[in-house]
Design a protein that fits this description.
197 residues, alpha+beta, Phosphatase 2c, domain 1, 5-stranded mixed beta sheet, 4-stranded antiparallel beta sheet, 5 helices, 9 strands
Length: 197
């Protein structure tokens, strides 16, 4: 059985240049993930691609990538300068997924390619994985106060037995209620994965 590849990425910048960079980043990811390469090879390929299109580091990309073995529930992951995802265990314990390296596309300071670290964890029944972009925690209300990680964590800590879709809906409702009609200046992206028993 093929591993499940999960990725959330966020490019620096706004408007058409950022959209073009994300479109080509997605194309590179599709090409790399269509092979049976391990996560480490996919990550190295994405970084090489991003550096080739980074305009001397001005167009970098943060990303969180994970390969999940559906049979063993082992998850291998790399965090490339992205907001640290939250893994809430069924017990309520919170783990932050920090292992990895800097954002993709930053210039190298030596001739050697940077080696991203890979974290490994095992997912258990009813564990909840929440991956989000900075636009979620930096969403602002009309007083310019940020939603913040503390509010995000409060919404994740709820032990309600619910589907991933219901958890996502509840979290996004919390963000939308907080910001009201205040205009946002960044995208708000969140992915929720719940492990079935």
């Amino acid at each position: 059985m093929q591993p499940l590849l999960v990725i959330v990425a966020d490019v620096a910048g706004k408007s058409v240049p950022a959209a073009l960079l994300m479109a080509t980043f997605q194309a590179s990811l599709r090409a790399l993930s269509s092979t049976s390469e391990p996560l480490e090879a996919i990550v190295a390929g994405l970084d090489r691609y991003a550096r080739a299109h980074s305009l001397d580091g001005r167009r970098f990309t943060t990303a969180f990538l994970a390969q999940i073995n559906p049979q063993t529930r082992e998850m291998r992951y790399t965090n490339a300068g992205h907001n640290n995802p939250v893994l809430r265990r069924a017990s309520g314990q919170i783990e932050r997924l920090t292992v990895g390296g800097p954002p993709f596309g930053l210039p190298l300071f030596s001739e050697n390619e940077f080696k991203y670290e890979t974290g490994v964890t095992k997912l258990g029944a009813d564990d909840l994985l929440v991956i989000f972009t900075d636009g979620v925690v930096e969403a602002v209300d009309d007083r310019n106060e940020e939603f913040s990680e503390s509010r995000l964590l409060s919404s994740i800590l709820s032990n309600e037995p619910e589907s991933a879709a219901a958890t996502l809906q509840r979290m996004m409702t919390a963000v939308n209620t907080f910001v009201g009609y205040a205009r946002q200046h960044d995208d708000i992206t969140c992915l929720v994965l719940r492990v079935n028993a």
